[in-house]
Design brief:
340 residues
Length: 340
């Protein structure tokens, strides 16, 4: 009953904001395009990329690990997807197949780095913030190291581009998969032993350990799931959404996914609503700026401004109480050796 009441309160609090933002986004765009359907369709690639990333972030933080590495790992995943797709295409692999494999490699990169973050912040008495930010900068540094050589190689592809097909069947299939993943993650968290263990380690890892839950393994499991989704989001970001890569591609987008997840209280279903709002703003930010007579610099800042507003609304309203973060989020867990 308390959970249902909480969800109702969240919906009543979030719906007016969602409707207002959707209207502000949709009216000028629809006026230009002449079709609300085309407006929505144009938002889907951005929605998929940001929803997968925010979904992964949410489940990882539910385990109690503060996820400040998200933007660096996302940026590296974008570069890994691009580099893999280009190298495979140069080797003669079909462009769409190369792009699909690139997305999977990006997911693998995310899983490896996320597991590393979960291990060092749980096994060692080390600050989550320090470890996360350090890994973030590692991601920033590795991204151009991986991406730039592939960018030079891509010149040999002439007019070929190893990208996903943007025709409706492909886009709608990926949308259905991403929504299904959200539902599955929600079920995993609320109705399985793994989900109970993840939430228990987030609320009180010492108590969870006393009950026989292996906190390190549980958090690594959450990292494998969460950061694989973050990596897949980075791969989709390149292959379906932006469809281009340059040094710094994806930088800052991880923080937007962070804000999407936070404003939805890390709830897999509510994150869909938040991701849809941000996707509309990101896709049509320049159109919005022109309608409001704002400069291009302000347009570039708009998604981050909305992210800041969303986080402030979450922290300053009952949403913070109804969708409270895990009690031990960001707190150091150190299991002392006991001697008799």
């Amino acid at each position: 009953m308390p959970e249902r009441a909480g969800i109702k309160g969240i919906i009543f609090g979030a719906v007016p904001l969602a409707v207002a933002l959707a209207i502000v986004t949709a009216i000028p765009a629809a006026a230009q395009s002449g079709s609300v359907a085309s407006l929505i369709y144009a938002m889907i690639p951005a929605f998929i990329a940001y929803y997968l990333t925010a979904l992964g972030h949410g489940i990882f933080e539910l385990s109690g690990v503060l996820n400040l590495a998200i933007d660096g790992v996302f940026t590296l995943s974008v570069a890994a997807s691009f580099a893999t797709a280009v190298r495979l295409a140069v080797a003669g692999v079909n462009d769409i197949t190369a792009a699909a494999i690139g997305i999977l490699v990006a997911g693998l990169v995310g899983a490896i780095l996320g597991s590393l973050l979960a291990f060092i912040t749980t096994k060692l008495p080390i600050s989550h913030g320090a470890a996360g930010l350090s890994l973030m900068f590692v991601g920033y540094g590795l991204a151009p190291w991986i991406g730039l050589p592939a960018a030079y190689m891509s010149q040999n592809l002439l007019k070929r581009k190893p990208l996903l097909d943007t025709n409706p069947p492909t886009v709608y299939t990926l949308l259905a998969i991403s929504l299904l993943l959200g539902v599955l993650i929600y079920y995993l968290i609320t109705n399985t032993k793994i989900g109970v263990a993840i939430r228990a380690t987030g609320e009180n890892p010492h108590a969870a350990s006393a009950l026989g839950i292996n906190v390190v393994k549980t958090r690594i499991m959450a990292a494998l799931i969460g950061y694989t989704l973050i990596g897949l989001g980075g791969g989709v970001f390149y292959s379906l959404y932006t469809q281009t890569w340059q040094e710094g591609a994806g930088m800052g987008s991880g923080w937007i996914a962070f804000a999407i997840s936070l404003s939805a209280g890390r709830h897999p279903i509510l994150t869909m609503v938040s991701a849809a709002i941000f996707a509309g703003i990101l896709k049509h930010q320049y159109l919005l700026a022109s309608e409001l007579n704002l400069s291009r610099d302000i347009a570039n800042m708009l998604p981050f401004l909305v992210a800041l507003i969303a986080m402030v609304i979450f922290m300053a309203t009952p949403l913070k109480r109804k969708l409270a973060p895990p009690s031990s989020l960001g707190k150091i867990f150190f299991r002392e050796e006991r001697t008799v």
